[in-house]
Structure formats: C-alpha cells, structure tokens
C-alpha cells in the first residue's frame, strides 16, 4: 500500500480552514495512488490550542468537524488528529486523539498515551491519557497508531527517562503491521538528529515500517519544521519531506517506490528558514500586513529586516531610521544602504525633538544629575512610541522587535523601548548566532552592509557608547547564557565556562534580575532547547538561592 | 498535644531567610507549649518556585537547608515543606515533600500525591507524585501528613472529579490519629467557603482532628490568604488563623484550649486586603521602593493609589498628573484632591509638548487624515514614557499600572502606554469591583474624591471622549467578560448574559482579538477563579472557532 505523509500547515482554532486543507491534501494523495494519508497531530484544531482545549465547546466543535470531514472522505483513508471528549468520569475532560476516516465513516479513534509536560508543552494540563491502545484493523492491515510524544518514551535528553511505558513498541507487540505517528514536534536546533535516531531504533526493533508525519508552520512562539519521515522494517530512512514548508510525500510501504529524501539545510540554514517561516505564519495567522522595523544601522535590526523581507516580501516591510544626537553618521548611512539593498521603503523620524520635549515634561529637577540609564531609556522609549505610531497608522501594521537573546538575558534592552513589537524574531538567537545569520542571509552578496557586521555593537544612547563598555564581550555573555539557561550549571561551572568568577557572578546577577523585563517581552520564535517565553517560567519576586562565592 | 499552625510568609528561593522565619516561629510555638508546628507547603523554598524546581541544584540546596534546619530544631517538632530528589529512576526528578524535624533529626519524609495541573498550577511539569504514603509514627502518635491538593480530591469545581484517589482519607484508613495538611492555596473570591466545606467533611468522615496550615503572602501574581484552619473529629471548625497576614495559632488537639476563630473580612474586604498584601509583598520581595502612579482623576488610578498607600505608606507613593489638551479641569483637580487626601506627593508633567514633538517626528503625512486610535495611543504612550522616566530616576522606583480587568478584556488600553508598570493591581478586578473597592477604601471618609467615583469614565484621549462612546456600558462588558472568561459559555449564552446578540458578538470579537496586548501586560494580582496572566494560556495567532450567528 502507498502511504501519504500529508505535512500541512494548520491554524489554531480554524476548524473550517484546516478541514479544507485536509480534504485538498487527501484528494491529491488519492490522485497519486495513496491508500492512506497520515496527517499531523491535532490536524483539525491546530497545535497548540492551549486553553481552547479546556473549552467544552471546542471539543464538541472538533467532534462535529470530524464527522463532517469523515462524510467527505473519498479515495484514500485519512488519519487525522483532533480533540475528543473523554468517556472516563474522572480526570481531565478531553483527550488528544487520532481518527481513521474512510469512505464517509469514522473507522476508529485512538488516544495519546504519553503527555509531554515540560518546556513549551502543557499536555497534562489538558488531556486524559489513553489507558490502552490496540492496533486498528483496517483493510486487512493492523495499523499501529501513536501520537507524537508516544514515540519519545526512550528519549533521555532530560537526563533521565520520563516514562515507564513505550507505546510504539506496544503497538508492534500487539501485532501492528505498520507504525504510524501523528506529530507536532517543534523545531529546535539539533533535534532533527535525535528524532531520526529515535525513530530508526523504534522501526528496527519492531521490524515494522514506520511513518512519521510532522506538522509544519509557525504558531506564536513555536515553529514546526516538517521533515516528515518514513523508515523501513530495518530502520533505514527511506523518505523525508521538505524542511520548513508544506509537503506531500506518497511512498509505497513495500517497494519504497516514490520514496525520496529531501535535503536538510545546514544548521544556520535551518535557523534562518525557521525564523522566516515563523515571521510569515505569525503575520498570516494574525492577519498582519506591514512590518515596521527600527533600523539602527546595527546588525540585529539589519538581520530582522532581511528575514522579514524573505518572509513578507519587500513591499510589506518598512524600515524606520530614528537618529538622535548620539547616532553616528555611519549608522544612518548603514541603515540607508540596508534599505536600498533590501528594496524596502525607509522612513526617517529623528527623535531629538521628542527627547527634548520629554526632558521638558520631566522638569528641571529630573535632568539635573549625571545622566544615567534613565536618559538612555528615554531615548529608546521615544523610538518605541514613534515606531508604534507608524505601525498603528498603517492598515494592519505591526512592529518587529530587533533584540537578541544575549541582550534579553542580561537585560541590556529597554522595556517599552526597543522591546516594543508584536514579535521578536531574534529573541532566542544569541549574538554569535546573529552574526552567522547575517552571513547566511548575505550568501556572498552584500545585503547587510559589511560595516553593520564589522563595527563594534552600540546602543548609541550616550556619547561614544559601545556595548563592550557596559557588558563583558559577547563571547563571555553567550557562554554565561548557555551555562545558566540551557545547561543550568551552578556558579562554579558558569565561572569556568565564562573564564572568570567575578564576571560570571556579575552576569548571573544581571540574568537573574532581568526576569521582570522578559515577562513583558513580545513573543519570540523558539530555535533552541530553552527559549525565553512560554517554555520558561521563572518567578519575578524571588531571592537568589545559589551559593555564590560571596555567601 | 498542642499543635501550632505556623502561617508564615516566605520568599521564593530564599532558603536562608525562610529557614530563619521557620526557626523563629518554631521557638515561639515551643514557648507557647506546642509539641508540633505545622508549616505551609514548600516552606523552605517558597511557592511557586516554578522552573527553579527544575534546577538540580535547587533540590540539592533544599535538602542541604533542610538538614541544617533539622540540626537547629529544639522543643516542638516542625513539619515543613521542601523539594526532594526522587529516588525513582523514571519520571520527574523531584518531589513536592514534607519532612518532620525533631530534636536535631529528620524523623520522616512524605511526598505529595495529587499534583494540581490547571489554572496557575503546573505541578505535573515538575514533580513525581507519591506512589504511597503511610502515616508517620512519632511520639506515640500516627501523623497523617498530606500536602495541599491531596485534600482536594473531592473538589468538583472543575465540573468533574479530577482524581481517582483521596489521600487524606487514605491516611485515616491507615490509622492516622491526626490529619495534617501543609498548604499553599492562593486566594480567589469564594474559595474560603469551598475550602471549609471540603476540610470539615474530611475531618468528619475520618473522625480525626484536622490541622490545615496555609501559606500567606504575595508571590508575583498569586497571593496566599492564610486563614489556616483546625477541625475537631466531628468536623467542627475550632480555630482559624488571621486572614492575609502572618499568624501563629497554638491549639490543643484534645481540649481545644487556646482555639480561636479569627474573623473573616467581607468579600470586598478580602479583595482589598489581598490587593494590599499583593502590592506590599511584590515590592518587598523585589526590593522596590517608591511606586509612581499616573493619576488621571478617574476611579481606577485613584483606587490603585489608595491601595498602594495602604501597602507602602504615603511616603513611598508618588502621584503623577500628566494632563494633555483633552484633559478636563475637573480631572486635574480630582487628582490633586486625591493626592491631598492620601498625603502623597503629586508631580505634574503635562504631555502637550511631548505629543506635539511626536507629531512632528512622525511627519506631516502621518497626521493628515482624521485622527484615529493611533493619535490616542500616542498620548497614552507619551504618558507611559514620562511615568517610566520618573520611576527610573528614583532609587528602586517602579510604576503601578492602573488598568482594570474589563479594559484588559476588550483591549481598551494601550500597550506600552497605560499598560506600563511592574505590577497591575486591578487587572483581575472588573470595573464593577473597582467601584466597590473605592467605597471600601473610603469607608465613610472622603479619600477618593466623590467626583472620581460619580463621573462617567473617560480615557480623555480625544475631545469630550467617554468610555460609553467607545464601549457598551460596563454592566454589559462585565457580563460578557464573566460569561466568556470564567464560565466559558458559547456565544448564545453570552448573548443572553449580555442582553443582546450583536453587542455580545462585538464584545467576543474584541475579547478574543486582544490576546496580543495581554501577552505583554504586567503581572496582575489574582483575585478571581480565572485571571489573565499565568493561569490563562491563549494562543495569539488563531482563528475564531465558535459558531457565530454570522457563520
């Protein structure tokens, strides 16, 4: 039998639109000879629907949409994800489910067993797990259906096994001929390798072909990277769907006719493609039109603008130059070159007058002492107000924030200033990665001006200011960030990673105490195993618990 | 034996400070003849420590602090909460635990069985549940120790039972003489009644005295209300600790000598006390000093200022009047009267010049058409920048946002404008409740000027603007809000609650589409069963799934 991997991009809550996408993919799969099409997890209602899953009406609407969809299935059978009401009287009211639809009927329904509840996942908040799942007997075959996390029982990236059972192997033991997994597995750098190893092992151990259909597309902070996979009974990779774009693979599960393995971009290419898809889908799914980006002449805003142009096209991106008394001539020129290279409109709105008026409003006493962070914040916020003003006047206009993960980690950014935006595409990219993105975007051409890349980073909020005067070098910041946030090392190991105890402790203090800024930061796009935002939940009001050298 | 309920206010992460508080309460309990002191859940590390619970160093530091604490226990035994490393090889690495400490030793450790994972609770994200808990044999007694949610097995406020087991009754069946529960149960209006009914039933059914020690104090968005309880073996309430303030009750579990039932404030008094404690603890635990509040002359900012004065004292509260061309004389006067009544400093910073400079910076084209929301946002943001500027110049200064829940629900507020702030005390209070708070705060005196209460609400962002011109009356807004957010009714029932289909659907659209603003809102203080913020997780990029009359 030919199996289709229908890697589609759904929108959360859009039961009608998602149903239409399912039917279109199913028709194409049938046309290409598939007998069965596997779709991603939660195909009907999108993933993650979060607290929509708690609304009793949402599960009812899912079930209704599923019935309507079943009635329209012709040709290939469809294995689609949806949310169903639990029939158990105790526990969570709904389940994360998959239904096999064929020739107008709902043939069978199965539920997810392992509910990821860590990082960006909150499934124990919503779902009642399956207590048992038997293979689905259909067309002379036994289909071993599992959902996403069910395939990750043996993952030990958390440093230990989270689950005592292995639902995929259980399907094989119960006699499944084919292993099918519906997935919504978000991108993070390095995950593709783990995913492949895990699935190859499952197929090999079970001696069954395994078809894994992943979702694709951006949903707020997470982006599904697609790359759906098919393995033969020996655990050999036979087919892979496109990275970070919708795709439909039709593969013969016996002869492997038609199987093709889509190329996988380089690491930095993956990050770039994911950020572009994340921006594109956020705008599309929120109904946003034109992105406004403050162009400082620096590398961060240049990279965001170049990504936005790739996501939205140059006509939907507007650069805004907002020089102050502290902006260098070079910075303004770099912003102009960038806009020219990208083919985008560049508006100029100097903020000197706004800054002076703010000083006036704040009164004589305010500005009397030595200028400090308050003056710098004032400028950043004046820019934020101007930028938001431009976006608010433009139909469905929005702002893209340009801050990177290193700045956000140490709080080197201004709340309501440069942190303004509907989305902050680089907020999970450390400074080092921003440089790599600039090279990747340039790809030999000169899109981002060489000077924006080469010059020392500067916030240009006071005379002659350079980031290196306010912060340790970014190599040290990034080392501290990784040790503190991803690896969660204790201070002595952070100090070794950074190469100095005093600098490490100063950075730890900055990182710990910037939680209040991050709580109000725009949504980001997750590309690492631990991003700021929904997958990281830190108290604001707290005391440092770590044993430091001084305590 | 005399049992102490040691209702203390801990700080998240402050292992050392919390240990000192435990020892002080224990000494006082011993002095008053107690043989055993029960403390709140997670006494050592505070609740909720959130992702700190995931840091392996945090559990180790907890265990170390527990050992150090045990060595210092003299006199009464202490039952304290902490986080321990799981000894099971599979599953989450840590547990939500309680230890009995006595005369220098850790006598026994028990773990939490039921892990709340809904609303503001994420315990399945962090903790491995207890598989079994036996009573602790100690001093000729068997202590039936459970932790918070363990006592809520029979709660059906979610519309169904969440748990199949009942750990408190299981302790009684296993022979416990005394039932002891360590709790961190946040305030929400109406919960006290449910708590009392539940605990009385457990004591009565088990025919055992039950001692319930609740935490007290604010931790970011949630405030524990204390009110610790003691029931006799017939399920009769014998003792209650103070509402919303630290307390130490010492009660004889046989004779009930010394038992006293602290009075419970009225509903609005509870809300007021909780908001005051929430502001006070947020400032204290974040090390914040002076609160800056934009005083518009309206009721919201007046109520926030009055609450802040109760929390921090008049010297740590500064009012800021920021009139524009659209501000009425009356509004400025009302702000002045309020500041005078509260005894706080009032700064004046007219924003007319800033607004004009912003128009200048945005260019001629920007301001050409009919003024719309963009102009209104500009003014709100000019005020935000000025207010933040004042706070940033003041040592440990911070801004309190003044928006209420009704505004936040329908998006009648400006991101980076009036939404600026470290904390938004009224963001869980619908407009109706703000009026009740004003009356409660006035308490017969004239603290909040009568005109601020009596006049029609206005944002004063365009000539003659009144909220009622932009929104339906607040009675309808609040009815829609409650039906949509708390009750989660579908559109037909929302329409009945609001009293009109068209107005209900317009409000539903506004509420659904304002998610992007709420994502960047300051933390609030939870007072209802469903607050915006950490306990409510909604996608931004989504399509409306509800069947509306038009679809």
What does the secondary structure layout of this molecule look like, with pairings?
Two copies of one chain form a homodimer.
Chain A lengths: L1 E6 L7 H17 L4 E3 L17 H17 L4 E9 L8 E9 L2 E7 L11 H4 L9 E3 L2 E7 L19 H7 L4 E6 L7 H16 L3 E5 L1 E4 L2 E4 L3 E3 L5 E4 L6 E6 L14 H20 L4 E4 L4 H14 L4 E5 L7 H14 L2 E4 L3 H11 L10 H21 L4 E2 L5 H6 L20 H12 L7 H5 L12 H4 L3 H13 L4 H8 L2 H13 L1 H5 L32
Parallel strand pairs in A: 1-2, 2-3, 7-8, 8-9, 15-16, 15-18, 16-17
Antiparallel strand pairs in A: 1-14, 3-4, 4-5, 6-7, 9-12, 10-11, 12-13
For this entry, give a set of tags.
18 helices; alpha/beta; 2 domains; 6-stranded mixed sheet; homodimer; Rossmann fold; 551 residues
* Beta-strand fraction estimate of chain A: 15-25%
Integer average pLDDT of chain A: 96
Number of strands of chain A: 18
Major sheet of chain A: size, sense and barrel closure?
A: 6 strands, mixed
Class of secondary structure makeup of chain A: alpha/beta
What ranges of chain A have pLDDT less than 50 throughout 5 or more consecutive residues? none
Helix % of chain A is: 25-40%
Count every helix of chain A, treating DSSP H or I runs of 4 or more residues as helices: 18
Globally, the shape of chain A reads: elongated
Major sheet of chain A: order of its strands? 5-4-3-2-1-14
Biggest interchain interface, per-side counts: A-B, 97 and 97 residues
Subunit organisation of the chains: homodimer
- CATH class category of the largest domain in chain A: Alpha Beta
Named at the architecture level, the CATH assignment of the largest domain in chain A is 4-Layer Sandwich
- Return the domain count of chain A: 2
CATH topology description of the largest domain in chain A: Nitrilase/N-carbamoyl-D-aminoacid amidohydrolase
| Radius of gyration over C-alpha positions of chain A, nearest whole angstrom | 25 Å
């Amino acid at each position: 039998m030919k199996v289709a991997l229908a890697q589609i991009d759904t929108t959360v809550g859009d039961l009608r639109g998602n149903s239409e996408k399912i039917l279109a993919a199913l028709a194409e799969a049938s046309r290409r000879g598939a007998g069965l099409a596997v779709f991603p997890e939660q195909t009907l209602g999108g993933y993650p629907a979060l607290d929509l899953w708690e609304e009793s009406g949402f599960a009812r609407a899912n079930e209704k949409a599923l019935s309507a969809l079943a009635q329209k299935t012709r040709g290939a059978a469809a294995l689609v994800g949806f949310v169903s009401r639990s029939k158990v009287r105790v526990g969570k009211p709904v389940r994360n489910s998959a239904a096999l639809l064929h020739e107008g009927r709902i043939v069978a329904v199965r539920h997810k067993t392992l509910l990821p509840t860590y990082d960006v996942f909150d499934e124990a908040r919503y779902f009642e797990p399956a207590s048992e799942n038997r293979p689905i007997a259909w067309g002379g075959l036994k289909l071993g259906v599992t959902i996403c996390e069910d395939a990750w029982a043996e993952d030990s990236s958390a440093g230990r096994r989270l689950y005592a059972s292995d639902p995929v192997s259980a399907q094989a033991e119960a006699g499944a001929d084919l292993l099918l997994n519906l997935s919504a597995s978000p991108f993070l750098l390095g995950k593709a390798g783990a995913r492949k190893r895990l699935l190859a092992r499952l197929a090999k151990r079970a001696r069954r072909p395994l078809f894994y259909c992943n979702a694709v597309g951006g949903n707020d902070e997470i982006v599904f990277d697609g790359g759906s996979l098919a393995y033969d009974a020996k655990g050999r990779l036979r087919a892979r769907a496109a990275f970070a774009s919708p795709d439909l693979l039709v593969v013969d599960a016996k002869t492997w006719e038609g199987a093709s393995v889509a190329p996988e971009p380089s690491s930095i290419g993956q990050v770039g493609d994911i950020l572009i898809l994340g921006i594109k889908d956020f705008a599309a799914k929120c109904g946003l039109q034109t992105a406004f980006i403050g162009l400082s002449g620096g590398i961060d805003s240049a990279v965001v603008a170049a990504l936005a142009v790739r996501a939205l096209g140059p006509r939907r991106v507007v650069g805004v130059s907002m020089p102050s008394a502290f902006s260098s001539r070079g910075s303004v020129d770099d912003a102009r070159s960038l806009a020219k290279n990208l083919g985008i409109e560049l508006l100029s709105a100097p903020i000197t007058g706004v800054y002076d008026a703010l000083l006036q409003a704040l009164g004589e006493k305010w500005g009397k002492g030595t200028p400090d962070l308050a003056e710098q914040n004032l400028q950043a916020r004046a820019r934020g107000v101007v930028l938001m003003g431009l976006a608010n006047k433009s139909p469905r206009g929005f702002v893209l924030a340009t801050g990177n993960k290193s700045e956000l980690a140490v709080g080197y950014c201004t709340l309501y200033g440069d942190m303004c935006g509907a989305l902050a595409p680089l907020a999970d990219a450390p400074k080092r990665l921003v440089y790599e993105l600039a090279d990747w975007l340039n790809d030999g051409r000169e899109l981002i001006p060489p000077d924006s890349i080469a010059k020392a980073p500067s916030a240009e909020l006071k005379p002659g200011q350079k980031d290196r005067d306010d912060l340790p070098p970014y190599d040290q910041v990034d080392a501290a960030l990784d040790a503190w946030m991803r690896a969660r090392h204790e201070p002595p190991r952070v100090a070794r990673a950074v190469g100095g105890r005093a600098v490490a402790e100063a950075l730890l203090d900055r990182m710990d105490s910037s939680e209040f800024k991050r709580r109000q930061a725009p949504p980001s796009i997750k590309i690492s195993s631990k991003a700021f935002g929904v997958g990281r939940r830190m108290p604001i009001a707290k005391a440092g618990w770590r044993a430091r050298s001084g305590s």
